[in-house]
Design a protein that fits this description.
CATH superfamily of the largest domain: Transferase(Phosphotransferase) domain 1
Number of helices: 12
Radius of gyration: 31 Å
Pfam families: PKD_4
Mean pLDDT: 84
Shape: elongated
Strand content: 15-25%
CATH topology of the largest domain: Transferase(Phosphotransferase), domain 1
Structural class: alpha+beta
Protein name: PKD/Chitinase domain-containing protein
Keywords: Membrane, Transmembrane, Transmembrane helix
Organism: Lutispora thermophila DSM 19022
CATH class of the largest domain: Mainly Alpha
Length: 402
């Protein structure tokens, strides 16, 4: 069977979707040794064509920048995008047990990708906000699959509907399943993330940036993302660079003395300049001392040393802060089993019943009233099978006690 070639440029390898309004193809360059695959979107319906042409050409956001080619033939509009790399998110969530750190990184990637296309109309964002239109690369990075399949009867979309879909995807990420459900999976969703998902699924956000701002304000973000972020690394390197090239006070004063001697201004130097600089140095030192904030230290106690299945265990926060005017303002408990988060809490005391034997990891992160957070305090707990204790019943040979 002869392969179809479109615009004498792209040879069709496979039809991914087709109806009377549009088609979606996997293709390669025709007459070329380059074997890279691409996604070729074919739009037949005039209303859909007007929508995609205006968005792809004039949005000037992340989506228009990855548009590789576009052309029109006999009233049919074509748009070429890179072929999706990685694993579809639906498949990824089904096959991998994600840690809380993995979930935070993937959620941040999700929100950042949609902030990159915030100039696209809500309909375009709505189409891309789908587990099958997102690909996971190297376990934490996300890319759009660029599979544009429009519902002709549902072209009037506002951001509230995008918000609902995004909330559902975040719920699926933290529930670690493509069938995420807020009520069924509420124990797997951290308390700080739950209200964000709830608000998003209610359609109450007006932009992805609003969701991202709430996400960034959580203790989870501070713990798992902020310290490792590129911006933070750059900031720390800039501070180091400034410190590296600061001229020492003795060297600076010596230079000023030599200069003053040369120009006959020694009286001014000793009478005004040096005391002024020394005073300024002391003031700077005082300011630095005032703004310093030691991070708190997380720690907790356990009510039972040897835990059997069915036991109710109490974990009490024993964290401390060395700063006299500071206190513990927030905390996050996390319980993991076999690498999967099964419970979260932000209460001062954690109560949990271990119904299933196995290996668990309990961690606590705390934050003080000035915003500094601790390193995680982690305790590995092995829950044992509850032993069968036989009932002591008197037999026939038991003495008759009167």
């Amino acid at each position: 069977m002869e392969q179809r070639i479109i615009n004498d440029r792209y040879v069709i390898l496979d039809t991914l979707f087709s109806d009377k309004y549009q088609s979606l193809y996997a293709c390669q360059l025709a007459y070329s040794d380059i074997k890279d695959k691409f996604i070729l979107n074919e739009f037949i319906d005039k209303d859909i064509i007007d929508i995609v042409k205006n968005n792809f050409y004039y949005s000037n956001d992340g989506l228009s920048k990855i548009l590789m080619d576009s052309f029109e033939i006999d009233g049919v509009f074509y748009a070429l995008f890179p072929f999706p790399n990685g694993t579809p998110m639906e498949e990824y969530l089904s096959k991998h047990n994600l840690t809380i750190a993995d979930k935070m990184f993937i959620t941040e990637q999700l929100l950042k990708r949609f902030m990159e296309i915030d100039k696209s109309i809500p309909l375009i964002q709505y189409i891309l906000c789908d587990l099958n239109n997102l690909s996971v690369i190297n376990g934490k990075y996300l890319n759009f699959s660029n599979l544009f399949c429009f519902d002709k009867d549902n072209l009037n979309i506002d951001f509230s509907q995008v918000s609902k879909r995004m909330g559902q995807i975040i719920c699926c990420i933290f529930a670690n399943t493509p069938q995420g459900d807020m009520e069924k999976d509420k124990d797997a969703i951290p308390p700080a993330i739950f209200p964000i998902i709830s608000k998003a699924m209610a359609g109450s956000y007006n932009s992805t940036k609003e969701i991202y701002d709430d996400f960034k304000n959580t203790l989870l973000y501070t713990t798992f993302i902020e310290d490792a972020s590129l911006d933070d690394q750059i900031r720390k390197n800039l501070i180091k660079a400034k410190k590296r090239y600061v001229v020492s006070w003795p060297r600076f004063i010596a230079s000023m003395m030599i200069l003053a001697a040369l120009i006959g201004g020694a009286f001014w130097l000793f009478g005004k300049a040096i005391p002024s600089f020394i005073s300024r140095g002391k003031d700077t030192e005082i300011v630095h001392k005032k703004v310093s904030n030691n991070p708190p230290v997380a720690e907790f106690s356990i009510s039972i040393n040897k835990v059997y299945s069915g036991d109710d265990v109490v974990f009490v926060d024993k964290s401390s802060d060395s700063d006299p005017e500071d206190s513990i303002a927030a905390r996050l408990w996390t319980i993991e089993k076999d690498g999967t988060v099964i419970y979260n809490s932000d209460r001062e005391t954690l109560n949990y019943t271990f119904d299933v034997p196995g290996n668990y990891k309990i961690s606590l992160v705390v934050q003080d009233s000035k915003g500094a957070h601790s390193q995680p305090f982690i305790h590995n707990l092995k829950v044992l099978e509850k032993p069968d204790i036989p009932d002591d019943k008197p037999g026939d040979d038991s003495p008759n006690i009167k």
